[in-house]
Amino acid sequence: MTDYSFPPPDQASIGIAGSTQRFPVHRIYCVGRNFAEHAREMGAEPPKGQPVFFMKPADAVIQNPLIPYPVATDDLHHEVELVVALGPAVPEHWTPGNAMQAVYGYAVGLDLTRRDLQAAAKEKRLPWDTSKGFDASAPVSDIIPAAQAVIDADTALSLHVNGTLRQKAHLGEMIFSVTDILLSLSGLYLLQPGDLIFMGTPSGVAALNHGDRFHAELQGVAELHGTII
């Protein structure tokens, strides 16, 4: 048993639908600009050739339905996303034929963003980690095991805030597919069981305020409810 100088933090984890077990989170990878209309609404052209990636810390995940409004911002934005969870069947050598065997399951999540901090960093051509990787910035539903989840190009991804539809698109509108993203990420990082991949958001991102109630849904697969407090 390792003799730590002080007790290490608890392992970040999320629930698995229909199981008492929990999914241990290793890393959180995020795909930027994976829906063309969202890229344009952010003032950028859709990427060509290679996806855009950034990361959040593993302990940014939160499943408490009461989501704290973060410090240091006056402009918190929602970004609803398909979340892909990787399991033990991660291949040693990635190919288009074996990439999907690594997928343990799917969830729906929000990539919460301190948009004012992101805009200020972009204006100065500085990294914008502080706008994405803050505490409780990755609300996520329980994982639905891949064998129980039917998703395809027609599966809808949506977000309602206070009962009003804010974001909606079909997975077929993603510029890069799950396989595309797995192959690209595996060329940059040693992907591991426990990795989560937030697959990018449709257009319609907007502000969340204190007291707002949200309902995110991956059609027929997963739902996520919460309130900003």
Give an overview in words.
The protein is mainly β and 229 residues long. The protein has a single domain, classed as Alpha-Beta Complex (Fumarylacetoacetate hydrolase, domain 2). The chain contains three helices and 17 strands. It has helices at residues 36-41, 115-123, 178-186, and strands at residues 13-15, 22-24, 28-32, 52-56, 61-62, 66-67, 76-77, 80-86, 103-110, 113-114, 138-139, 144-145, 156-161, 164-170, 196-198, 213-218, 222-228. The protein has a six-stranded mixed sheet with strand order 4-3-15-8-9-12, with helices on one face. Strands 6-17-16-13-14 form a five-stranded mixed sheet, with no helix packed on it. A two-stranded antiparallel sheet has the order 1-2. It is globular, with a radius of gyration of 17 Å. It starts with 12 loop residues before the first strand and ends with a strand. The model has no long low-confidence stretch (mean pLDDT 96).
Please give the order of strands in the largest beta sheet. Answer: 4-3-15-8-9-12
Number of strands: 17
* Percent helix: 10-25%
Instruction: Give the biggest beta sheet.
Output: 6 strands, mixed
State the domain count. 1
